[in-house]
């Protein structure tokens, strides 16, 4: 299944090589920085609005609102419609098939 996803969406899992290069502690810092980049600083969460604003800044304008909502829903464990740091990190690890091996 993972090969189909990688072929269909051009996904390449960089997390294993990042951990190997950076070490676990620096990798976790990089993951935290990614969360901070995407979050709404006024609430400390990744919200639909902050995700939409930051994906546009990163040149990912092709993502539709429905895709952004799905991304949030995929990681939203407490049902508040946003991602806290733990939900974000959990989602990133679940999306990294290389870390599961």
From TrEMBL:
InterPro entries: EF-hand-dom_pair (IPR011992), EF_Hand_1_Ca_BS (IPR018247), EF_hand_dom (IPR002048), KIC/PBP1/KRP1 (IPR044205). Transmembrane segments: none annotated. It comes from the Eukaryota. Keywords: Calcium. This is Centrin, EF-hand protein. Residues 63-98 form the EF-hand domain. The keyword Calcium applies.
């Amino acid at each position: 299944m993972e090969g189909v996803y990688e072929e269909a969406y051009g996904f390449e899992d960089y997390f294993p090589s990042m951990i190997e290069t950076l070490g676990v502690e620096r990798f976790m810092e990089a993951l935290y920085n990614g969360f901070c980049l995407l979050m709404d600083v006024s609430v400390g969460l990744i919200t639909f609005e902050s995700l939409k604003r930051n994906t546009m800044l990163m040149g990912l304008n092709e993502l539709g609102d429905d895709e952004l909502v799905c991304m949030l829903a995929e990681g939203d464990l407490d049902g508040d419609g946003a991602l806290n740091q733990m939900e974000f990190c959990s989602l990133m690890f679940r999306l990294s098939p290389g870390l599961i091996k």
